Structures are given as structure tokens and as C-alpha cells.
Amino acid sequence: SATVNYGGMKDKRGVTAQYCTIYRRNPDDLLRLNTFSSSRGAGCGGGSTGGAALMKVGNFSYVNDSMGLGSLGGNRFDLVLRNAWLDNDDDQGNEDRIAKTKSVLESAAHAFQTHGFINYFGMQRFGRYYDTHMAGLEVIKGNYEEAITIIMRPKSDENNRFTDARRRWENRFEGVDMSDEDAVREAEKKAAQSVLRDLGRFMNCEVSLMHALSRRPRDYKRAFQSIAKNMRSMFVHAFQSYLFNRAASHRVEAGGKKEVMIGDLVLTEDKSLAEGGSGTSGLKGKAVKVLTEEDIVSGKYNIGDVVLPLAGTKIQYPENSTGAYYDEVLGEFGVTKEDLKRLSDRDISLPGDYRRLLCIPSDTTFEVKVYEDPLQPLLETDLMKISAKTMDEKASSEAGGAKGDEKEENAATSEKSSPEKKEENQLIGMVVGFTLPPSSYATIALRELMKKPTSADYQRQLQSSGKCESTLNNGDDDESGTKPSEKKDDPSGGNAS
């Protein structure tokens, strides 16, 4: 076996490509990955692809250094936005509807290209259930029992087996005399052993916690420390990210997105990994200064230079209302900056970092397209290119798997469609491409571009044809497609942009 090293994680749902390094392997060995299928236990193939491999490797060369976290230069995104609709355009003719929608899409793309977006951390930073930062807060407080309670509590959409296991943990002390420490420990030990049997293989944090507490019940700090170091760090970093998002919203509300303010921080030095810096994250090679009135008058700095700190022990805070706002938010949760220094997990520290307030995407391209088939590919992917598939071939292969007479019948029906009917079926989409620096989120970029939520709860309700939002407002979702429980304290920064 060999370790594959890479610069960063890629999206689970998407056709993605990146450079990786692998030590002392022959290219011929790696090419075998291109022929594996799911039936042989490799290649990432699934039922929807008939077992065909979805992972392809190639473009080999020998290099002196391995890839690693921090060596990423940025991420290129090419995305398709489908079935664009404008509010209140039901009464317009098809030609007018298309012209107006094109105009709005192009205007939004130009604004996105020029002004960028607030550089919020995306929702994925806060975990699937948007509570990772709250567990991190309890770790900062030293309240490991509450951190574990947050990690182990029942989740909204898990299957019954996992939900039942989590509820058994939640109710582990039911009927137990809490003044009898031996009985309490025994009850927790048995509950941990029971829950462990019903956890899924990808529930790494939960499995580590239950293993530890089945051996040492009630030792919550040691149990938390049994979680892998990178996972433990994820919790406290999520709280840092939440605090940044709140501060970014405050800074924009206080001073807008166009002008610098007295007391803002700007980066005066930002060395890359090759130049001796710390790469995509960390303080090494970075220096900041606080803007004075003289700096503002000189016009030397612009809003694109402004950074905000990720709260920590070795960073400087803005010397204006935004700096004071950090203390205000920390106070809401019963902690202070001093608590960051007293973090009791010996493997986790929070020196802090700096992150730009705004992100201006580079190499932005966009093209509005009119199409009829909701499944029609509008963008040629790298996988299509190396598989020598054309856009038409891909469309026919994804159009529902029709065979023989059924294909001919569909083709005949399509040919008989009147021009008026075809006009009614016309859909509008936009292919947009842009490059983001490391640790900036395409989901946040798209939220700014579309002025719509990017949460899974909202997106899964959208229609690929007809009026895009026709099924919204069903159940507990409000008009924005975000559940009230999520809107109450949106860790991704809300919609201040």
C-alpha cells in the first residue's frame, strides 16, 4: 500500500479533478484504477453507472516534493445553474421571459465578477447538522461532557437504528440514583457498550467516544481526546469560523463593502508556502497593520485588502467597532479571549489567523443558455473529455435509459411537437466559471450570485423544469427555503451581503 497525498478535499457531488502525489509507485500500477469496477470493490463505480469506474487517473510525472495540506493554490469551479426563473414573470410571453431573464442573469454575473462576495465560511464548515461550532464552544469552556452531549444527541434525519442508539445514550441515567457514583458509572458503561454496537462505520467521532467511555465511564475529557486530533481541531475551528462570520456581517453593516475604515486591519505581508509562509492557513509569513486616518486619505489601501482575524491568542484585532464586537459575541456565549489561552486539550491550540473580508473571484466566465431537456448537459466535464463523449452522447445516455422502440417513440414525439409547445418547454440556465483562493467557499459565492439559499433543505425542493420554486412553502419551510431552526442562528453569516 502507499499513501496518496493531496492539497485539499473535493466536493462529494461533482466531477472533480486535482493533482495528487504517491510515493514510489509505477504509473502502470496506477493505470489499473481506470479499469476497476464496483463489482471488484474499487474504482468508485455505483449502480447508477452500471458498475463503471468513476475515478480516472493520468497525466503522470515524477516530482521532488509531495503534495500536502497548505500547498493548494486555489480551486477552479465550472458550474451549471439550471431552470432560472424571475419572480412575477408568469404572464410574459416566452420571448420576453427569456430576454428579461438573460438580462438579469448577465447583470448579476457582472456584479459578482466585479465586487465579489463576503468571504463567509460555508455551512459545511459547521457540520451536517450545523452544531459543530457549538461543540467547539464547550471544548473552549472546558465542558467536555456538554461537548459530547452535542455530538451524541439525536439527529434529525438519521435512520431509526442510529436514532434509537443516540436516545439510549441520552437516557442512560434514567432510573439511576445519581448520588451513587458506582451505579452511575456502571449505567454509562453499559450504555456505551450498547450504543457502540449500533453505530455506523463512518461515525468516527461517536465510535471513539463510546469506546473510551465503555472503558472509562464519566471521564469525558479523556473520551474527547480519544477522537483523532484533526477531528478534535475541527470543533474549535468551527467556533472560530462562526465568530468570523458574525464579525464579517458586523463590519459590512458598520462600514459597507466599498470603503476602508479607520481601525481596519490590512495584510502587509502574506508569504506563500514556497516563500516560507504557512500556506493556506496559519500565521507564519503574515503581518498586519491597523489603518489610520492618514492611510485612508492616502488611498493606498482598498476594501479588498481588509482582513478580519480568526480569534486566537497571537493575533491582533481591529481597532474599531468590529474589534469590540468580537468581545460582544464571545460574551454572548459566556467566554472571553482569555479562555482561548486556557484551552485544556494539550493537542489543540488557537493561535488564530487572518482572512480577507471580501473574496473577488478571478477568471470569471459566464454564458446564458436556452435548452429544452432538463437533463441535457450544458457543460463538458473533464470526465466527458477523457472518455471521448460528446455533449449529445452524454445527453442521450442520461435521458432516462430509454431503449429500442421507446427511444424511437420519444424521438417521434419530439419531432411532432409544435413550435409553440417547444417554446413553452424552453428552459434558461447559466454556465458560470470562477477561481477562488484556498478556503473560500463556492456555496457562498453562489449564494451571492443567485441571492438564494444554498442549503440542502432549499435546493432539494427546486424543480428542474416548470417554475423552479413551485413546491416551496410546503411543510415547515419558510419562503426562503430555510427551516426556522436554521434561520434562528445561521452560522454561515445569513444574507448580509
Pick out the low-confidence regions.
38-47, 395-414, 475-488
Computed Rg: 26 Å
- What amount of the residues lies in strands? 5-15%
Structural class: alpha+beta
Specify the helix fraction band: 25-40%
Distance between the termini: 47 Å
Order of helices and strands: EEHEHEHHHHHHHEEHEHHEEEHHHHEHHH
Main β-sheet, spatial strand arrangement:
6-5-7-8
Q: What's the rounded overall pLDDT mean?
A: 84
Gross morphology is globular
- Please summarize the sheet with the most strands: 4 strands, antiparallel
Task: Report the strand count.
Answer: 11
Number of discrete helical segments:
19
Brief account:
The protein is α+β, with helices and mostly antiparallel strands.
Provide structural commentary.
The chain has 497 residues and is α+β, with helices and mostly antiparallel strands. Helices cover 38% and strands 11% of the residues. The longest helix has 27 residues, at 229-255.
